[in-house]
Design brief:
This protein is α/β, with parallel strands linked by helices and about 325 residues long. About 35% of the residues lie in helices and about 15% in strands. Strands 6-5-4-7-8 form a 5-stranded mixed β-sheet, sandwiched between helices. It has a 3-stranded antiparallel β-sheet with strand order 1-2-3, with no helix packed on it. The structure holds zinc ion. Zinc ion binds next to loops.
């Protein structure tokens, strides 16, 4: 049973105190009851208002330890309001907007909060895409209308995978920056993003030569000098790419550096994959749940590290 606030007023009434926020985090982090992060023992007693001491090994822990809320000096109620705001904006949140809503003195504080929250938007060990999946790459950077900034004299390459549903429908998506369009880069993305056994449709680029060897059913669509645009060949990927670029240019005015682009891609993916949720509160629930999920793998290993030279020579 997913328990989440329905409205902003509901949120503010329910999560006005630190104790109420902690109780909610407790329920999401340990849905089956406390579990010691050191020895997995299930019995613990409270030590003061925030700490739990494991009955077996004596380890003291709090519900925020090891999560994005660890060591925060800001009241959890403020974090909850930030999460509500981020998840209730249909088009996403900008740092300037968050700064205004929470009344932060410094833009940098709001920016750092948004980046912390974006990191929670990727669920550790999340499911891969299945069924029929379209895959292609798109460029971001120089040449986009409205993109500004010193770093954007170059372009970066983004791999996009989209589940197809029915004749024209879009399912879930995955996307990330890749250093180039080589088979090494593209296949690593596909292995992470798509469940083997799925049907993968791509264009005829040689970077996709290993797809069938890796356990996918590979379907290739060919241009063959056809005057059709690539958008007609892989229509779902191109629709998603257009929506992504509109969002980057709109909500963020194109002011996204390559260094941080993957986090924005994570946010776009988080929102897109939940676009049909009727209750925005469900996104709040999911983001808080992921924010307290304890991840034994450092985040940078999860996303496979950042491309070393995203502005460099592109192979394709
Ligand atoms: Zn223990």
């Amino acid at each position: 049973m997913e328990d989440y606030p329905r409205t902003l007023a509901d949120l503010e009434t329910r999560f006005s105190s630190d104790a109420a926020c902690r109780a909610y985090l407790h329920q999401l982090r340990w849905p089956d009851g406390f579990r010691c992060p050191k020895c997995e023992h299930r019995k613990a007693w409270p030590v003061g208002p925030r700490l739990w001491q494991c009955a077996a090994c004596g380890r003291q822990t709090s519900v925020t330890a090891g999560t994005i809320f660890q060591d925060t000096r800001t009241p959890l109620a403020t974090w909850f309001r930030a999460i509500w705001w981020v998840t209730s904006q249909k088009t996403g949140a900008s740092a300037a907007g968050l700064q205004q809503v929470l009344g932060f003195g410094r833009y940098q504080t709001a920016w750092a909060w948004l980046h912390k929250l974006r990191r929670a938007m990727v669920r550790p060990g999340r499911d891969r895409l299945t069924g029929h999946v379209e895959i292609d790459e798109t460029y971001w950077g120089a040449g986009e209308d409205g993109v500004r900034g010193r770093k954007l004299v170059n372009r970066t390459l983004i791999a996009i995978a989209v589940e197809s549903v029915g004749a024209r429908g879009l399912g879930r998506i995955r996307m990330r920056q890749i250093p180039n369009a080589s088979a090494n880069s593209l296949q690593a993305f596909i292995d992470d993003a798509v469940e083997p056994g799925s049907v993968v449709t791509t264009d005829g680029w040689t970077g996709y030569d290993r797809v069938s060897k890796r356990g996918y059913e590979h379907r290739v669509t060919w241009l063959e000098g056809d005057p059709q645009s690539p958008a007609a060949l892989l229509p779902r990927v191109h629709r998603v790419a257009a929506l992504l670029k509109r969002w980057l240019l709109g909500t963020h005015q194109g002011a996204v550096s390559f260094e941080h682009l993957d986090y924005y891609l994570d946010e776009f993916t988080f929102r897109f994959n939940r676009r049909t949720s009727r209750h925005r509160g469900k996104l709040f629930y999911r983001l808080v749940q992921q924010a307290v999920a304890i991840d034994p793998v450092p985040y940078k290993d999860l996303v496979g590290g950042k491309p070393q030279d995203v502005g460099g020579t592109l192979v394709k």
